[in-house]
Amino acid sequence: MSGEGDTSGEGGTAQSNTTLGRKRFKRSRSHFADRITADGADGWPVEAGRYRLVISRACPWASRAAISRRLLGLEDALSMAVTDPLQDDRSWRFTLDPDGRDPVLGIRFLHEAYDARETDYPGGVSVPAVVDVPSGRLVTNDYQQLTLDLATQWTGLYRAGAPDLYPAELRDEIDEVADGVYRDLNNGVYRAGFATGQEEYEEAYADVFRRLDLLSERLSARRYLVGETITEADIRLFTTLVRFDAVYHGHFKCNRNKLTEDPVLWAYARDLYQTPGFGDTVDFDHIKRHYYGVHTGINPTGIVPAGPRLAGWLTPHHREQLGGRPFGEGTPPGPVPAGETVPAGHRP
After folding, report:
1. Whole-angstrom Cα distance, residue 148 to residue 168?
2. CA separation (Å) from 256 to 25, 130, 205, 213, 247?
3. Contacts of 222 (CB under 8 A, 6+ apart)
4. Can you give the pLDDT at residue 120?
5. If you ran DSSP here, which 8-state letter would residue 29 be given?
6. Which run of H or of E encompasses 54?
């Protein structure tokens, strides 16, 4: 799968975001690509309570990790910090926490963990990020590999009934599907939104809707992207679809049609949203405030739209008629842990 990291709206600083839409968009590779593995080959062994996952609920890349963590039941083993959706020139901020400090890491800004790992690191401070709690050092910001490792390396710490999100026999197909989704859709909406010329924009726009049409056709007769259960491929598609009407349709000018106007993809997205572990991680308020408030290069007024209406996310989808078992032989995750619930006003 692609190994590129996010140095754009989610991964960069607010200061760099003033240039988005004014210079050609290019996503760079993750700079800190150490892996946390069962054998500790990179010096970071899987260990309950040792690491802290830092996310923004606004960020689609970080949301992948939040969903995987919930589905696998890693909440007790891997603690999670949620940043303010608005950055400033000092990076992601822990202003949602008492005294503006993360209660576990004791830092005010995510850049402090980056600085502890590498002084004067010149790149963007991105989420998701995994920080080693004892040392306060960043371990990895490789969001592509992170969820794959959660799905394969942390098995000894899973909840009972955790699903297999990356089944060995389906990995080639999952990788192929996810690569196309990443290239044309996950990253394609950014290429369209931050385009600096008409031709560049229209090329990205065409990629986005070509891929959406292919996905709609694929999902018309099957409940999930690969196999009969939820996999990594579904997680990677969902995080873009759930943001589509709220930000990508208008803010990024991907406006051929809304998600709600594609019956197949809209039903598929609702099916996942209503599945424990997906919708209970989504914060529409954070999503809108981040994109419209931080990307001043393409939204200089900073005005955040009041819509769209969210009630439709809870309407019947009828996708169960296609068969499939969301968790395979497993079970749904339990209730959202105390302190991690999305506020009532930020969801349907």
Report:
1. 12
2. 21, 37, 9, 11, 14
3. 322, 324
4. 81
5. B
6. strand 51-55
Looking at every residue in the chain, the average pLDDT score rounds to 93
What token pair was written down for 228?
């009969």
Q: Is the pLDDT of residue 1 over 60?
A: no
Amino acid (one-letter) located at 120? D
How confident is the model over 30-51, as pLDDT tens digits? 689 999 999 999 999 999 999 9
Active site residues: 59, 190
- H-type helices in the chain, by residue range? 14-17, 60-72, 111-117, 143-152, 171-181, 188-193, 198-219, 232-243, 263-273, 284-294
* Tokens encoding 59: 């960020």
Alpha-carbon distance of 112 to 128, in angstroms, equals 15
d(CA 212, CA 199): 20
Q: Report how far residue 169's alpha carbon sits from residue 210's, in angstroms, rounded to the nearest whole number.
A: 28
Q: Does 340 score more than 90 pLDDT? A: yes
